[in-house]
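Table S5 (text form). Sequence records supplied for joint modeling of the three-component complex.
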Amino acid sequence: MLELDRIQVAYGAATALWDVSIRIAAGELVCVVGPNGAGKTTLINAIAGLNRIASGTLSMDGRNLNRLPRHRFCDQGIAIVPEGRRLFSGMSVLENLELGSYRRAARVYRRQSLERVYSIFPVLRERLDAPAGTLSGGQQQMLAIGRALMAQPRLLLLDEPSLGLAPSVVLEMFNVVREINRGGVAVLLVEQNVAMALEVAARAYVLEEGRIVAEGIPKQLLAQPHIRRAYLGEAPDS
Amino acid sequence: MSWPSLTLLGQSLLSGIFIGALYGLLGLGLSLSWGMLRQINLAHFALAFLGAYLTYQLASVGGMDPLAALLVIVPCFFAFGAALHWLFARFSISPFNSLLVTFGVTVIMESLIQWIWTADYRRLESHYGEIKFRIGTLFVPFPELLTLLVAIALALGTWAALHYTDLGKALRAAAEDAPIAAAFGVNDRALALLLSGLSAAFAGVAGACLALSYTLAPSQIYAWIGVVFAAVMIGGLGNPIGPLIAGIVIGSSEALTMAVTAPAWAPLVSFSLLIIVLLARPQKI
Amino acid sequence: MRIPAPAWIAVAGLALATVPYFKLPAFYESFLYLIFHWIVLATSWNILSGYSGYFSFGHGAFFGVGMYTTATLAGKFDVPFLWTLPAAALLAAVTGVGLGWVVFRVPRLRGELFALITLAVTFVIGTIILNTPIDGGPGIYLSAVPIPAIMPTASATFYVLALVMAIGTLWIAYAIYHSKLGTGLFAIHDDEDVAEVLGVPTFRYKLAAFAISCALAGIAGGIQAMFVSYVTMGDTFSIVVPLNVILMSVLGGTRHWLGPAVGATVITALLYAFTAGDFAVAGRAAVGLILIVAILFLPEGLLGRFVRRRRRREPSPQPIGAGIAAMPATFAAPAQAGMNPLLEVRGVSKAFKGLQALDAVDLDVRRGEILGLIGPNGSGKSTLINVVSGHYRSDQGRIVFQGRDVAGEEAHRIAHAGIARTYQIPRPFAHLSVLQNVALTAMFGRAALDSAAAEREARYWLEFTGLAAKADALPEDLNLHQRKFLELARVLASRPTLLLLDEVLSGLTPSEIDNAIGTIRAIRDRGATIVFVEHVMRAVMELTDRIVVLNYGRVIAEGKPEDVMRRPEVVTAYLGKPPVGKPHA
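The corresponding structure-token record, covering 1108 residues in total, follows.
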């Protein structure tokens, strides 16, 4: 469904991603792990249309998206839950959700989408008029995911959703992500919390210093020294 | 210093409210473009005066009803506003530089106005000016009342549009975080052009109201800048109703000050308020 | 031998001083008077606003204060005209310093807000003057005041006075431009917070520039008062003066001491050329158009291009080798010898809008060690660096550096004490060359060198970090690796006792990282103590003597790298353990 073929993306004056190729099939839950500064956010932003692709192709169902204006990416069924949430904090919870379904195709289903979001995150229904900035960290994360779901996505992009959340909330959130994926939405999850990410993902990529250095199913990757080295700087004790 | 009569105070207060409404009307477009587009459009005032002079011309010389002149002015000004934003976006002009560029535009417009209409005072004599209402002992001239009503209508209408329509919400979202709004389908670039055009159109409307009540001279353009900026800053950037309320407060304070002391102390009110607000609550946007 | 610019100015001034003796029509003297007058106003404005970036819209206020001082003293109290000029300068300066003292303390009042508040002050002062006995309404007549007989005619006298002021103002602008004050102002222009952290006393410098700027405007006002011989509020306290000086300076180039003078000459000539009838209006429109074109296409002004090109053509005055050999190889030894830790952080907490970034952090930094500071994203590492360097103020706790508690001190004092830091995302001064960036810390940091010594010091550190070839380039011409090393060279030039490195290696390629590791080791070998925030584990393991691990703002482990990285709580913090109750299958 989604295919990145040898893409190169710049971040400011430097090149952040080199020769990156990733595939996500419809309904798959794929994660990308890697150390800080590896380029994970640049990758997600490129798929969402927020970063320009310097070379290589980004295609959805075979259609090249490189030259698409950034406000047309969501029409392809791509929705993003950005790093740090990036909610419209001056606007209410309800308005944030409504903005999620701004695109015409999603607007028609606004009522149903809202009900679906309330059933997944009941707490949001209780705080509809509250400015988004007054919610707790966990609630903000839920709102950000809810906003993305309102767009009726086929592919959900999640950028470090566990960041800044208390460990108990993190568990709940990953359950939600699992549930959403079971509902048929493909998910690309970028995470620092490697153990959690590998628990939920069907396939994973390891990104280091802008390049894909490993790919495979979680069991295989955990057995490799790559991940331990990338995060802890040493090979595991034999 | 003798205490003036209740009627005089009441009339002063009323005239203060009316002029405050005009401050708010002028501030509406300025507040929207500064708060939501990060462009400080100093030319807003020259634009309003151009609208005033055009209204004067179409009504006095062209024989049009002054309000009908708006049918011509509004679309033209809308186009101008959109073009101005396009220029700012094309050259990636910072908020401060937008202040300088629009000052240049102001000077050009002021010269244009002076060249066409000369520096002589111009006064639009319309049948509207002759209508007056009475409330008790107070006189309410129709043009001023109209200005107040238009100011309230536009402020409330804009506020309602921003809060109850999808387009308005999209505008607010784009003003806060344009890339993320775009990620959800908001064409932030097109909306920015729309908003800039709307601000300029509001300037035109303010100009028409100006023409109905005041005598016009090119030098007058600068007289309004300080007090309207004060109203916008006190009322809150990007807030359509704030400048109106702040404008009315400033206008009333000025008018009462003038009635109770010498008229020349009036500017002190708005500028002192501005300084206090800037010092006490200087969060930007 | 190059003749310095001020000498040229003096020569030109002497030549121009002879003009009255040619008995030309009065028009020429008036015209030149106007040019000198605007040169003074624009150049004086630029000293604060152009150099530091604090665009004031209130220059008319100080000009007006000067005018009214002279008008009042000479017109109402019969003080001889020339004696009123120092008074005008003093009063205008006091007004400016008073305003600056309040406004410069509020960090949010920069950019357009500073412009607005200075504009508002103009109208307030004007209104007060209008309504009090100072003016009272009718203005002040000065026709009865005797004009000093410096030259044969009155017109010539004013001409010469204005000429002298113009020369003096240009000399002052030149001097400041080449002085420590000027360098500090330019740094403030590009990034005030970083300048403060690197040791520039920003508040003092802004006040000084403001005072000088206002004093000069005040004198110009005093002279103008006599020249027009009738002073009213409306002509003085308006938006016209500030807008003109801004236009002139922007056109000529705000970053150059001569820029405003060039702009003033061009604009005054243009306006004068269009004096007659219809053309006056067209002339003003042309001026507006010029301003727009200047902002869009010539943001650096007419002289801006010139400044850039010159910088690149100037050859290095010294061969590189000589500089290196002469450098002492070590950093100054810390003031307190002995076994006490160099830095003791005790109970430091910092919260941002409900988020506890640092929570009662305790740690020691020992002399001569490389201490690694690690932790997952959001654990508070950068916040700790910001608090220790003075960029933020901690809510609680003590930060004892070499026996002295520096918590809460102004950042530039902390820099003088010997603490220096790099920024995770490099923040060089964009308009200063690489060399100037580094020389700045040598001048303002702990070492506090004069500008010649600072430049030598800077060249040494550029050589050390491999940037010598780029000394005259601007930061925007460097790639990320070079910019990170510029950050490094910049902090090294202040010869700090304690060096805080914030993610210096992120974004670098493996070979660049190897290079950097070697460099950092060399720095420590020269006597510096280093706190090293990093995510690149390889570097942390290789370089550090001890590490401290932060998580959620708290210290969770401390000790030797190999030991700490094996502890379960650290592993959990980084890899994240699936807690009891895994996600449902």
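Note: Residues 26-52 of chain C form the longest helix (27 residues).
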